[in-house]
Amino acid sequence: MNRAGPNRLVSLMVDNLIWLFVIGAFIAFSLLSDRFLSPYNLGNILLRSAAFGMLVLSQAYTFITGNFDLSVESSLGLTAMFAALMLVTSEAGGWGWQLHPLLVILLMLVLGGLIGLFNGVLITKVGVNNLLVTIAMLFVLRGATYGISPGTSISFFPKEFTWLGGGTLARIVTDDGNFVLSVAGIFVILAFLVGHIHTRYTQFGRNMYAVGADADAARAAGINVDRVVIIVYIIAGVCAAFAGLLQAGRLNAATPTMGANLIFAVHGAAIIGGMSIYGGRGNIIGAFGGVLLWSILDTGLNIMRVSPFWIDVSRGLLLLFAVLLDALRVRYQRNVQMRMALAASTIGLDDKEHSDG
Amino acid sequence: MAEANLKTDEILLDMRGISKTYPGVQALEDADFSVRRGEIHGLVGKNGAGKSTLMGVLMGIRDADSGSVAMDGQELVDASPQTMLDAGISYVPQHINLLNTLTVAENILVGNLPKNRFGLVDWKAVNEDSQARLSRLGLEMDVRQPVEGLSVAERTMLAIAKALFANARLIILDEPTAALSRVEIDLLFSFVRAQQEQGVAFIYISHHLEEVFEICDRVTVMRDGRIVGTREISEIDVPILIHMMVGGGVQEYERESAAGEQTVFEVRGLSRRGAYEHVDLSMNRGEVLGLSGLQGSGVDELAQALFGLDRLGVGEVLVDGEPYRPGSPKQAFESGVAYLPQDRHRFGLVQLRSVRENVTYSVLDRLVGRLGVLMRAGEQQITEEYIDKLGIVTPGTEQRTLLLSGGNQQKVVFAKLAATQPHVLILHEPTQGVDVQAKVDIFNIIDDLSAQGVAILIISSEVRELIGLCDRILVMYEGRITDEFSRAAKDMRPEDILLAIEGGRNVGDS
């Protein structure tokens, strides 16, 4: 048991490494640029990454159960486009239905949930590989988004709709500029908080971890593994729909390319936040740290007027680092197990000498 | 004697007249097996003796053709895994199935975590509750650490504890000490004894006979699907037990030696930490050498390393007098060493491809003509030659190997190896999972190859087969070669060899 002590400490550190990075990046950019710490910028960090954050939350859910869903970026695009078409007049490029914003929001959440249900059922009940299913859906949903779009972007949404993604709760005026408390920023924080409570403090959330840790053992413990995975995919779909609504609201526009190519950045942020695609590890709070780190890096480099190409390079490097970190973490844990297996083996070690004493 | 005691002691489990037939194999024949309340009951027998089938029936995962299972005199009808669990029968496998990334506490209470009045998980109660439960069993461990931080013995004890929390009264321990050090074995045994004193019964399955003597009250021996007998442990010793396991039957197969004078394969002082130590062995042209040892004795590791599937470690290996250090199977093939893997499904065959492709995979280099184009006619010829030579029963060269019987699959693997024209052939459990006819065919192939001068190393736990096939047999125990038996010295007796495999070389002498 003494042996486990230091391991546990290292594990704890490895699992929470993200917050050291977040603080480090924050301090680094504050020192490198005097505009980074401005009230305007601080308010902006969360607002700009709200949609991204919801996608990370969706993947955090699937990751816990040892799954993933590549199609969420396309769900974001589809729900944004669908919502736009139902909201605006035909002159503005929509279908001219001009449905009530609240109804549209509700319909989009249902659509996201249905996409998740479809993915989940195909993966659990039909037994199709999750990579193949969600890649297929990635194409299907993106293609459908282009198909229904008028070919241009759609804008001029009603205020009630843009409030969620672009609204402001409070504005604090200072000499250096305004600090804006955005609805979207608060929403994404609340979403992660709910996600944390759900995964950490409910039986369902713990069942998710059990499924991710070892699906067979979870089944043996009486957990309905298929049901857990399907519900998780539904939650992921709803999160993706929220992401679409937030994004369309913030930009006051919907384009068919919205969300495209985001998924790997999303996975990168989740992994650097301590989640593992192998399941059963990490937590939602850590994933939120991943979102923060990602957007601090983005905003910071933007402010420093780094060329977009080099920002891409830095994103890529961060992603590489995240994947490396995950591999190292798995290797470290495997090493711990290996050392124990070795210590337990009767060959080549000094254990036998102790048995006399 | 055993019967006399049975009358006085309360019987917990009573299995009567259990029979089970698989196509072509009588796995269990009229087996009677009973366990007393609060008893640790050893179950021993060689691989294939019927232990796992019997336990499968007890766990409700195998349907017996006939016979009855009763707990506390109550017959269990409709034997499903759930029925058996409900009756208090629990199984702890060799590879413990726990939620490794989660804490000990959560593993204990998984699926039923204590909640506070808001319906949220009460982590304080989770930890305290699980700690209290473990304490009641006399098990002290930090319940907040993840299971992956536990030692193997601790995981085994945790698995036993979980079974007890689910009201198990009879726990099947399957090779629980396979990965344990002596210290850990002591820890596990004292825990098991403590539970025994509370009236819990255990079935203890192990190849390590000394441990059976150490912890069991009684032992039942199985052989060829039959119960040979049940004895009080105090009434027997290791040689008697081995004699019961081996039986007195005659060897099924014996071949003429084709060993020559010239040494083709030599291993000198080979050591790899945690696997094997100071291994010396040599084989002459045409010699058939057997190597046997328990799981964890190093034989499996040695076999894989010799074929470049794992690190060799320090020491020297010579093939035809040339230094041999394969970095990969390809290099091994090129040096004239071929290997029949233990798990042919994983390593030996590309199941979805044809017989022809499988046979010629390793020799494609030789079949490439000008312009780098494969010569299909050459492939065809080689394949047909080996189908003929080895008597592979297949509709044609294009049949997918997946559709062949186990024995014929094994022959395809042999064909693939023989096609490389090796000087040294390493066979890892060559008869595992094949029927009797295919076994005889394989023995004949081994005979043929050795007559052609191939030196053959057979790694097998089937001692009786080794005796029939081999010129010499080496025994490995705890990473070292501890014993040698040879046809020349006329000392290849199954009892002695089994005893050596169990590591009890001196038990018989003392």
Number of domains of chain A: 1
End-to-end gap of chain B? 26 Å
CATH superfamily of the domain at 263-349 and 423-501 in chain B: P-loop containing nucleotide triphosphate hydrolases
Distance between the first and last residues' Cα of chain A: 19 Å
Give a count of the beta strands of chain A, DSSP E runs of length 2 or more: 4
Tell me the number of strands of chain B: 20
Sum this structure up briefly.
Chain A is mainly alpha-helical and 357 residues long. Chain A has helices at 4-15, 17-32, 39-48, 50-64, 72-87, 101-126, 130-148, 159-166, 183-201, 203-213, 215-220, 225-251, 263-272, 284-303, 308-344, 351-356, and strands at residues 154-155, 168-174, 177-182, 253-254.
Brief descriptors of the model:
heterodimer; A: 357 residues; mainly alpha; ABC transporter involved in vitamin B12 uptake, BtuC; two-stranded antiparallel sheet; 4 strands; 72% helix; globular; disordered C terminus; B: 510 residues; alpha/beta; Rossmann fold; six-stranded mixed β-sheet; 19 helices; 20 strands; 35% helix; disordered N terminus
Write the layout of secondary structure elements.
The complex is a heterodimer of chains A (357) and B (510).
Chain A: H1 4-15, H2 17-32, H3 39-48, H4 50-64, H5 72-87, H6 101-126, H7 130-148, E1 154-155, H8 159-166, E2 168-174, E3 177-182, H9 183-201, H10 203-213, H11 215-220, H12 225-251, E4 253-254, H13 263-272, H14 284-303, H15 308-344, H16 351-356
Antiparallel strand pairs in A: 1-4, 2-3
Helix pairs in contact in A: 2-14, 3-9, 3-14, 4-9, 4-12, 4-13, 4-14, 5-6, 5-7, 5-12, 6-12, 8-12, 9-10, 10-12, 13-14, 13-15, 14-15
Chain B: H1 2-8, E1 11-22, E2 25-36, E3 40-44, H2 51-59, E4 66-71, E5 74-75, H3 81-86, E6 89-92, H4 104-109, H5 123-136, H6 152-165, E7 170-174, H7 182-197, E8 201-205, H8 209-215, E9 218-223, E10 226-232, H9 238-246, E11 263-272, E12 276-284, E13 288-292, H10 299-306, E14 314-319, E15 322-323, H11 329-334, E16 337-340, H12 344-348, H13 355-360, H14 364-367, H15 376-390, H16 406-419, E17 424-428, H17 436-451, E18 455-459, H18 463-469, E19 472-477, E20 480-486, H19 494-501
Parallel strand pairs in B: 3-8, 3-9, 6-7, 7-8, 13-18, 13-19, 16-17, 17-18
Antiparallel strand pairs in B: 1-2, 1-4, 4-5, 9-10, 11-12, 11-14, 14-15, 19-20
Helix pairs in contact in B: 6-7, 9-19, 15-16, 16-17
